[in-house]
Amino acid sequence: GQQLNQSPQSMFIQEGEDVSMNCTSSSIFNTWLWYKQDPGEGPVLLIALYKAGELTSNGRLTAQFGITRKDSFLNISASIPSDVGIYFCAGQLFTNAGKSTFGDGTTLTVKP
Amino acid sequence: ETGVTQTPRHLVMGMTNKKSLKCEQHLGHNAMYWYKQSAKKPLELMFVYNFKEQTENNSVPSRFSPECPNSSHLFLHLHTLQPEDSALYLCASSLGQGVTEAFFGQGTRLTVV
To answer: Mutate which of A3, A5, A9, A45 to test chain B, going by most B C-beta atoms within 10 A?
Structure first.
């Protein structure tokens, strides 16, 4: 099946810094999703991208659907301590009835 | 509060035990999902139900048996598990299968001893 490579695996940053993470796939997806998982909780959807080249923001978060449809990026600006958690990308194909393939996750630690 | 509630939050069971995980959603969704989350591995989709009918079994061993009595409730019956089945089991729901926005429960942390 399809696999997603998510990088970096972990990040340790200072409060106020910007963060960038990405996901790449060997094959295309029709939809890219970005989730955040807080410790002890389930993932929460942050941003959904539906079109190649699409750039979407949600507060301090911005995500882009790569033009090749094989990658996606998530940026967090001016990080704050509550940004701590695991960020997952997920891809979906129309032909797969909405099944999501998830990346391994990027663990973000923000130092005050 | 995401509208998807899972119980119990934590479960420790022996390899010969039988237990069940419960998931309930009050969002009016028609699709429900079970995922397994193991350390250092991506979320793995286990089962999908759409309008109470199972539409996906992702080659899950028969020691995991799902049940969906109605669109609001989903169970995962566990029997004769192995230590490597220890993981966080997440339930999710969406308006319908194929709808991208899925809402996850908090998960059940399962430890098999």
So the answer is: A45
Q: Do A48 and B97 touch (CB under 8 A)?
A: no
Query: For chain A, what is the HEC assignment?
Result: CCCEEEECCEEEEECCCCEEEEEEECCCCCEEEEEEECCCCCCEEEEEECCCCCEEEECCEEEEECCCCCEEEEEECCCCHHHCEEEEEEEECHHHCCCEEECCCEEEEEEC
Percent of chain B with pLDDT over 90: 85
- Name the band, by pLDDT with cuts 50, 70 and 90, for residue A97: low
Q: What is the DSSP letter of B95?
A: S
Does the beta-carbon distance from A99 to B56 stay under 8 Å? yes
Closest residue in A to B103 (Cα–Cα): A44
Residue A81 has φ and ψ, to the nearest 5°, of -55, -35
State the pLDDT at residue A58. Answer: 95
Which among B6, B101, B106 is the nearest to A45, CB-wise? B101
